[in-house]
Amino acid sequence: MCKTDPGAGFLVALVESKIDFIVVGGVAAVLHGVPVVTHDLDIVHSREAENVERLLSLLQRLDARYRGQPSGRVLRPSFSEMSGRGHINLLTSYGPLDLLCEIGDDEGYTELIGRADLFTDGEIKFNVLDLEKLIEIKKKTGRAKDRLALPLLIATLKKRNQSEET
Amino acid sequence: MNMEAPETESRDLNELLADIDHDILLAAEEVDTTLIDWLLSLSPLERISWTTRIAATIGGLRRVQN
Questions:
Q1: Which residue of B has its CA nearest to A115?
Q2: Between chains, do A120 and B5 touch, taking CB under 8 Å as contact?
Q3: pLDDT at residue A165 is higher than 80
Q4: Predicted confidence (pLDDT) per residue in A33-45, tens digit
Q5: Exposure winner among B2, B14, B47, B60, fewest CB in 10 A?
Q6: Alpha carbon distance A28, B56 (integer Å)
Q7: Per residue, what are the HEC states of A102-122?
Q8: Looking at CA atoms only, how far is residue B60 from chain A in angstroms?
Q9: Per the CB < 8 Å rule, is A35 touching B45?
Q10: For A69, which DSSP code?
Q11: CB–CB of A117 and B8 under 8 A?
């Protein structure tokens, strides 16, 4: 696997920049082995000031800008926005990135880190929201696309549990 | 490539699934696990790489169709 691959490269860049974050959303599901296709990386980042500074610095290097802007207009994320609330939808040189200040029941990094699995791949370590929590969140949204994804998440969880028992 | 070792607390699966619609649970039972098995055989970053490529292929097909 080449670390310049945009999908994996993004995660590697975040880890190497010493950003505190938790992978959530579709990429989190994929990391758990769920066969879904996803086009963007969703992360919940720590809003500690130093972490936001490091993340902002990385995003500047990755030419990050808000998605959906009128042609010719470039709007960049700011420290205050990344320290606040809500979702920040960006486009970067690695592709789309969604910074989620909180998800579900207003849960941010501090609340969610206890529900994160630590994944390792070589020397790269990063936190991924656990599969059970992903299912809990999708149960509550009521959105059609989340209902469609639930069977795959549940099947993967059962498969993984079976593998761990043998 | 090293394989990951996810660290989770054990959760009560029945409690997690208790309030999910029966049709969703039935659909979960019918999922073909071939792709799940394949993804679980890869390292974490390999999983991302492959799904990124698949997403790019789908994007390419859409552009051809359009």
A1: B8
A2: yes
A3: no
A4: 999 988 889 999 9
A5: B14
A6: 18
A7: CECCCECHHHHHHHEEEEEEC
A8: 13
A9: no
A10: P
A11: yes
pLDDT, one tens digit per residue, over A63-100 is 999 998 888 889 999 999 999 999 999 999 999 999 99
Residue A9's region, left for phi above 0, alpha for psi from -120 to 50, else beta, is: alpha
pLDDT at A38: 86
Q: Is A94 left (phi over 0), alpha (psi -120 to 50) or beta?
A: alpha
Quick one: which of A29, A53, A58, A44 has its CA closest to A131?
Answer: A29
Q: Check: CB of residue B60 under 8 Å from CB of residue A18.
A: no
- A155 contacts in chain B (CB < 8 Å): 28-29, 31, 33, 36
Question: Model confidence over A7-23: pLDDT tens digits?
Answer: 788 999 999 999 999 99
Tell me if A30 and B43 make a contact (CB, 8 A cut-off): no
Contact assessment for residue A11 and residue A126, using Cβ atoms and an 8 Å cutoff: yes
Number of H helices, E strands in chain B: 4, 0
- Show which residues on chain B lie within 8 Å of chain A, measured between beta carbons: 1-2, 4-8, 11, 13, 16-17, 19-21, 24-25, 27-31, 33, 35-37, 39-40, 43-49, 51-55, 58-59
